[in-house]
Design goal:
Elements lengths: L2 H11 L5 H25 L4 H33 L4 H5 L4 H13 L7 H29 L4 H15 L32
Helix pairs in contact: 1-2, 1-3, 2-3, 2-6, 2-7, 3-5, 3-7, 5-6
Length: 193
């Protein structure tokens, strides 16, 4: 589960030419990192430092992923799927997601609500990524969008942002875990996926 493995996988994503394939590979890496966190959490012998390192990398990846979609894919996709309500529903509220990422990133891993906050972030992501791949990506492809050109733009932006910590934003610290309003029935256990 080494963080260096996650870094290598993330760098390799930029070599993929197609934008939707890049995002799909990032989705796979995000799911792997969530499973790794879930495994750490369930083993009981994970240190707060080990969890924090994994979540810091996850938050950096998520922030860049959201930025790429917001600035490159979504403007084109919104136009391409304008008449499809189900595809339009795949667009998540990026401001809320970015706030949730920043809240988790700024939490101390020894906080008793840390695991719950990361789990809530994971729940939001799993549902959003599945909807996006199943509906939005298919509609974008069907609309004939030049996803290779978008992929080139994403690769350039990814390289330009490599050195930035995209989650460093001012977020008021809360004594409770950030909440996005997902019902408790939506809680997921990612071990074994």
């Amino acid at each position: 589960m080494a963080t260096s493995t996650h870094h290598r996988r993330h760098r390799a994503i930029g070599r993929v030419r197609d934008a939707l394939d890049q995002l799909r590979l990032e989705h796979e890496l995000i799911l792997k990192m969530l499973r790794d966190f879930d495994h750490l959490r369930h083993t009981g012998d994970a240190t707060p430092k080990a969890k924090a390192e994994l979540v810091d990398h996850l938050c950096d990846l998520l922030s860049l992923h959201a930025l790429l979609k917001e600035q490159i894919l979504y403007p084109v996709a919104r136009h391409a799927v304008a008449g499809n309500d189900q595809a339009q529903a795949a667009f998540c509220n990026l401001a809320l997601l970015q706030h949730l990422i920043a809240c988790v990133d700024e939490m101390d891993a020894s906080d008793p609500l840390y695991d719950e906050a990361v789990g809530e972030l994971g729940d939001c992501l799993v549902a959003s990524m599945a909807q996006e791949q199943r509906v939005l990506f298919a509609e974008v492809r069907a609309a004939g969008v030049d996803t290779h050109a978008l992929g080139e733009q994403m690769t350039l932006m990814r390289r330009a942002q490599q050195q930035n910590d995209l989650t460093r934003v001012e977020v008021a610290r809360s004594r409770s875990a950030p909440s996005i309003g997902w019902p408790p029935a939506c809680r997921l256990t990612l071990v074994g996926r």
